[in-house]
Each structure stands twice: as C-alpha cells, then as structure tokens.
Amino acid sequence: MHTNVKRNVMYVGVTNKLEDRVAEHGDGRGGAFTRRYQVKTPVYAEEYRYIDDAIAREKEIKGLATLQKRCAGRGVEANLGGLA
C-alpha cells in the first residue's frame, strides 16, 4: 500500500517484487494513477505464498472505506459497525 505526501490517496496493488515496485513508484514510473496522484510513499505490505491469496486480499482492501484503509496501512484492525 502506498500513499501520497498529503496521505489523502491510497494505492493498493499486487507484485512479486516489492522492492522494484517501491522504486518504480518513487521514480514516477508507476501506472497513470500513481503518477497522477504522486503516490510514492510505501506505508504497508503483506506477503503471501500464493498469488490467488494476494489478489483476494487486494480486493478486500480496495473494498474498505477510506478510514479502514488508513488503519490497515498502520497495521490497526478497524471494524466500523461490522463493515469490514
């Protein structure tokens, strides 16, 4: 998970080479979304053995409310009225 300087935009993605992906975002070589919103600061990562598990978690995080994403980025469990 990456964010911008203001921490008002979150980017969630899957990669098999985290260090390379962090460098790409930092250098502005990421996708259109990360370039447009200057999403360069890594804030959270999880490691999975199987790609299907990683993709499922990515979809789960993308479905969270903004506050929950920010809490997830800090490693905090957020349950807002059972919405998680």
Quickly list its features.
3-stranded antiparallel beta sheet; 3 strands; 84 residues; mainly alpha; 4 helices; disordered C terminus
Strand and helix map with partners:
Layout: E1 2-3, E2 10-11, H1 18-26, H2 32-36, E3 41-42, H3 51-62, H4 66-73
Antiparallel strand pairs: 1-2, 1-3
Span from first to last CA? 18 Å
% residues in beta strands? 5-15%
> How many beta-strand elements?
3
Overall residue-averaged pLDDT value: 82
The helix content, as a percent range, equals 40-55%
The backbone outline, from C-alpha atoms, is globular
SSE string, helices as H and strands as E: EEHHEHH
Commentary on this structure:
The protein is mostly helical and 84 residues long. The chain has one domain. The protein has helices spanning 18-26, 32-36, 51-62, 66-73, and strands spanning 2-3, 10-11, 41-42. The chain has a three-stranded antiparallel β-sheet with strand order 2-1-3, sandwiched between helices. The radius of gyration is 13 Å and the shape is globular. Residues 77-84 have low confidence and may be disordered.
